[in-house]
Amino acid sequence: MEAGQFREDLYYRLNVFPIYIPPLRERRTDIPLLAEHFMKQFARENNKKIIRISQPAIDALLQFQWPGNVRELQNCMERAVLICDEDVLRIHHLPPSLQFHDISEHDVGNARKSLTEMVAHFEKELIVEALSETGGNQTKAAKRLDTSLRIINYKIKKYGINPANFKKKS
Question: Is 80 exceeded by the pLDDT of residue 34?
Fold first, then answer.
């Protein structure tokens, strides 16, 4: 108003009922909805056939603090859609700042993960995704991943995954 770029009378009309909009980090339940909206929007704009966001990617989005609020989430999803080369947007499509956000306390000094750690993380994501899609059925998850039930059971134990968490509730 002082610079003459905003009408004073309009300011006072709008200021009758101020609206507080909390930052995105205080509205965690909005993150998956906004992420899916932006994913669909950018997939359509870029002629991509992305149908959903994987659960580990959603978890990473929920853990992030979003200092740039909705605009930062929008930019993140645009980048992810642009580099996504499959029908599911996965955690490795997200910016590195989100991929490595869940680094444990002892890894804070070394934010870079080794190849073994990154492969294990991706392997766990694929198993969680397969279990989620099959309602926790390990046999079907093994078939979906083109591996044996024995290997799936070994990896489930190795990564501490509980298949019961993926059972469909009636």
Answer: yes
